[in-house]
Amino acid sequence: MTRHPEEHSLPHRGDRTAGTSGPAPHAPPRTHDGSGAEDDLDYFHAPGNRLHIAAHQRRADAATLGRLLLSLPGFAFSLGTVLAAGWLLELAWGVPLWLPALVWLGTGLLVFHRPTEDLYARYVLGFRYPLPHERTRLEPVWREVTGRAGVDGSRYRLWIENTDNLNAYAAAGHIVGVTRFALENLSSAQLAAVLAHELGHHRGGHSWSTLAARWYGLPGRAAFRAARAVLVSTTGATLRAACLVTAVLLAGFGVMLLGPAAMLLGGVPVVLLVLPYTAAALSRRAELRADLHAASLGFAPVLVEVLLAMEEAGRPPSQVHGAAMSTRMGARPASGSPLLATHPDCATRLHRLRPFLVSQR
């Protein structure tokens, strides 16, 4: 395993600071909030102590770049679909051809728009705002995690999923969610490890790239499903004619968008066959990177405890949101194929965390 400095030591600190100067930080008095969770976290970044904010808050790692690269064919097909819709609008109502494409491209930037993120979290992911006692528990832990990482924690919004599953989520540009079960049953140190894992997704660019790829591939998927529905509902000569028209349109879009490269369509079936496996491999890599991020902040032992607890529970997390909509702490493939799993198996994750466990003994 290739080791990177940022994965095996505390991240480099920038020269921007927040808070006030003072003596070395001390852990605040440990209290219990009645939830049954133990406050066993060592706090180094209590309120009033200086926080060192890293100059670079996030980056695009190899998993993010690979995911964006894999989304290019879907983006090209979606662009062709939007241009075709714009052409029809121009013929019917005189709408400029470029306007629908410009609106579609611009709306993808809303992944970082806070009010839009709030709507997405509430009405798409089904999250809710933390209650006062939940916020009292979450905020000190989140401050400790972001303080160790050198991240401005106020840039992110914490959410609660009201379920009995042990899970956590990173979505869009600034959404960090945990389940009510995790909040009530994990100790503070374990909760910090989970939040550090999700922060790793945000710092690596996994969350925004997943949602962006999903959004920019949406018109192409919609067109494909509409074409499939039309083909299924037709028979005989009509079916053959519809197939021919669809093939001509797809070839036309390919030539328009790819030019001479469209002549290489013989390799498309192979690409389509390999694409799901490559996407799953990149997703597993992103999970391992997020684990290493949490371990680099000193949470390796408690992260192992959480992973073992999830493994022993023997029940997959809720499948409501889908892997393409948010990055989850744990998941299992519906197909049962390891090659299509979006998350590594527990043994692999524990193996990658072993160097951190040895170094902390």
Explain what you see:
The protein is of the alpha+beta class. The protein has two domains: 65-112 and 215-265, no CATH class; 116-211 and 275-359, no CATH class. It is built from 13 helices and six strands. It has helices spanning 5-8, 62-70, 72-93, 98-107, 114-123, 132-149, 180-185, 188-204, 206-216, 218-233, 236-258, 268-313, 346-359, and strands at 16-18, 51-53, 157-161, 168-171, 175-179, 327-328. Strands 3-5-4-6 form a four-stranded mixed β-sheet, with helices on both faces. A hairpin with a 3-residue loop joins strand 4 and strand 5 (175-179). Helix 3 (72-93) crosses helix 10 and helix 10 (218-233) packs antiparallel against helix 11. Mean pLDDT is 78; it is low at 1-29, 262-267 and 315-325.
DSSP summary: helix tally: 13
State the secondary-structure class: alpha+beta
Q: From the alpha-carbon coordinates, what is the Rg to the nearest angstrom?
A: 23 Å
Mean pLDDT, to the nearest integer, reads: 78
* Order of SSEs: HEEHHHHHEEEHHHHHHEH
N- and C-termini, Cα separation: 21 Å
Unreliable spans are 1-29, 262-267, 315-325
Beta-strand portion reads 5-15%
Main beta-sheet strand count, sense and barrel state:
4 strands, mixed
Shape: elongated
- Compute the number of strand runs: 6
- What order do the strands of the largest sheet run in, or round the barrel if closed? 3-5-4-6
